[in-house]
TrEMBL record:
Domain of life: Bacteria
Protein name: FUSC family protein
Location (main, coarse): membrane
UniProt domain Integral membrane bound transporter: residue ranges: 313-438
Membrane topology: Multi-pass membrane protein
Similarity section: Belongs to the YccS/YhfK family.
Listed transmembrane segments: 12-31, 60-79, 85-105, 135-155, 302-320, 326-345, 357-386, 392-412, 424-444
Signal peptide start and end residues: none
A GO CC term assigned to this protein in UniProt: plasma membrane
Cell compartments where the protein resides: Cell membrane
InterPro entries linked to this entry: Memb_transporter_dom
Keywords: Cell membrane, Membrane, Transmembrane, Transmembrane helix
PANTHER family on file: MULTIDRUG RESISTANCE PROTEIN MDTO (PTHR30509:SF9), P-HYDROXYBENZOIC ACID EFFLUX PUMP SUBUNIT-RELATED (PTHR30509)
Length: 557
């Protein structure tokens, strides 16, 4: 029971925001006597699911961007619905394009799925130009509702949780220094500071909001060095009181008994916390820059795979004469959200089991011949609970989510045979799940592994640039450290996907990524007070790093 209470406390605002964004348009449509309008408006409300617990400013921008895409994609989909091959081609392009943008911009789940859902659903609602304009207006109304809900519900622009996690990660670094847990603490700290930088960018942090993160990063660099150099646990009495004061924003002189590097870092961090000291502005990464970089990453083949697979799923549904052909493609899109083969197979079984249970739940509800308002309210409640449990037990979330498209179908087509639709949903899910697994094996199965050397090369070049800026051509190091953080996270994500894509007999040891991991951490933690190496030694080392990066880029390490 305690874990359930903790779950609700942690995610209630996510569930409520998603439920109201999708459910309110349906309820309003029923109340004004146009449930079909409410169903269409709820497609715009799907945008309200995006943003998670990110700072409100970023959340509003993301919901607005997704909503704008919905308001364009959905009516165009209804126009394309008159010609099957045009519709199939269109949904494939939408799926591929949305997937690429979401992967490049690091949009978390549901990623492109809800955009694809909206496009696929309206392939079954052909309309003329006037009808498409009406659809556009209804979807836009749903987007407006979702933006209003997003503004009202959820965390503000507070950075306190992200900053607290960063300070805690630094504390763990110092507490585990000289112990077997030190390596894991270093990796977690690097990942935590990478996430902190994302949060600062999302919130548009100002100078005062940057003071504590800047102080934490100064101590973080020294803590990494202390963690690497320590031959035994550090004496907590020499560093912990000063550390806790800095974390609380208090300017306390460091303990003379502390490690020299930590003493220097504590003094520098205290200086940053002074209100009369100017803090460097946060350098931001533009959307265009992220999209341009993603062209050469694993995002491109992954997006192409999803686009082609969704188009094949839609074409198969039409060729089999299925009444709801788009449900096959929708299942394909859901399953292929998994970034590697292991996750795809797991999601397939969860999707099948959850759909079977969900169809049973929907059949039980519709057997009572509920009023339209009841259907809308049940869909709202189902979305709320699903948002709570989906990240933890995917099958349970699917069982609840299954009711929502059935509710939309019922509201948009009040006189339809819902029993036939339920049976079709189950059959289409089985076909789509099987197709998704087959296509994951067939379409560019080694694409991620093929790009791993390029990701490794980019990581090594970022490390080289940081070391060059520190030792040879002194410059502002913050953007260089940011780049190492970003490349390090990308390297770990790609490496994990490559390992999960391999069968047990095909697995090969990767000796490069662990070396880059240690080198990245070392580059971020060059200690205070240590003499700089001789320039000629640095030149020789960095020249060798450049040679290795070139070899990796060319595929011949």
């Amino acid at each position: 029971m305690q874990w359930l209470i903790a779950l609700v406390r942690a995610r209630w605002h996510l569930g409520l925001r998603a439920a109201l964004s999708i459910g309110l348009p349906m309820v309003i449509g029923v109340l004004i006597g146009r449930p079909d309008w409410g169903a269409l408006a709820s497609m715009g409300g799907l945008a309200g699911v995006y943003g998670g617990d990110t700072p409100r400013r970023h959340r509003i921008r993301l919901v607005g961007a997704v909503g704008l895409a919905m308001a364009i994609i959905v009516p165009v989909s209804s126009l394309c619905a008159h010609v099957t091959w045009v519709s199939v081609l269109y949904v494939g392009l939408v799926a591929g394009g949305a997937s690429f943008c979401c992967l490049a911009l690091r949009v978390p789940p549901p990623r492109e799925y809800l955009i694809v859902l909206a496009a696929l659903v309206t392939t079954g609602m052909p309309s003329n130009l006037g009808g498409a304009l009406r659809v556009c207006g209804l979807v836009a109304a749903g987007v407006v509702i979702s933006i209003g809900v997003t503004i009202a519900i959820g965390p503000r622009d507070s950075l306190t949780p992200a900053v607290d996690r960063a300070w805690s990660a630094v504390g763990d670094l110092l507490r585990t220094a000289g112990t077997p847990e030190a390596g894991g603490a270093r990796s977690r700290a690097v990942a935590t500071f990478a996430h902190l930088r994302d949060a600062l960018w999302q919130a548009g942090a100002g100078p005062d909001e940057l003071r504590s993160p800047a102080a934490a990063e100064i101590v973080f660099m020294a803590a990494i060095s202390a963690s690497i150099d320590a031959r035994g646990p550090l004496d907590a009495a020499t560093w912990e009181p000063t550390f806790n004061d800095l974390r609380a924003g208090k300017l306390t002189p460091p303990n003379p008994q502390a490690q020299p590097g930590l003493r220097a870092a504590f003094a520098a961090a205290a200086g940053v916390l002074r209100p009369d000291v100017e803090v460097a502005e946060l350098e931001k990464i533009g959307v265009v820059e992220l999209l341009r970089e993603a062209r050469h990453s694993a995002a491109f083949p992954a997006a192409a795979r999803i686009g082609v697979s969704v188009a094949i799923g839609a074409a198969l549904g039409h060729s089999l004469g299925l009444a709801h052909a788009y449900w096959v493609a929708l299942t394909v899109a859901a399953v292929l959200l998994g970034t590697n083969l292991t996750v795809v197979v797991r999601r397939t079984w969860h999707r099948i089991a959850g759909t079977i249970v969900g169809v049973g739940i929907a059949a039980a509800i519709f057997s009572t011949h509920p009023a339209s308002l009841t259907v809308a309210l049940v869909a709202l409640a189902a979305q709320f609970v699903a948002e709570l449990v989906m990240p933890f037990v995917y099958a349970v979330g699917v069982s609840l989510i299954t009711f929502i498209p059935m509710a939309l179908y019922h509201l948009a087509n009040p006189g339809s045979d819902i029993g036939t639709a339920l049976g079709a949903r189950l059959l289409d899910t089985l076909i789509g799940a099987a197709l998704a697994v087959v296509l994951r094996f067939v379409l560019w199965p080694k694409a991620t592994a093929a790009r791993l050397p390029q990701v490794q090369a980019a990581t090594l070049r970022a490390i080289t640039d940081l070391l060059r800026g520190r030792w040879l051509t002194p410059t502002h190091l913050d953007p260089l450290r940011r780049d190492v953080h970003r490349r390090w996270v990308a390297l770990h994500n790609v490496t994990q996907d490559v390992a999960a894509d391999q069968f047990r007999g095909d697995q090969r040891p990767d000796e490069i990524t662990p070396a880059l991991d240690e080198l990245a951490i070392l580059s971020l933690g060059v200690p205070f007070g240590r003499p700089k190496p001789q320039p000629e030694d640095v030149e020789a080392l960095l020249k060798e790093f450049d040679r290795i990066a070139d070899s990796l880029q060319d595929g011949a390490p």
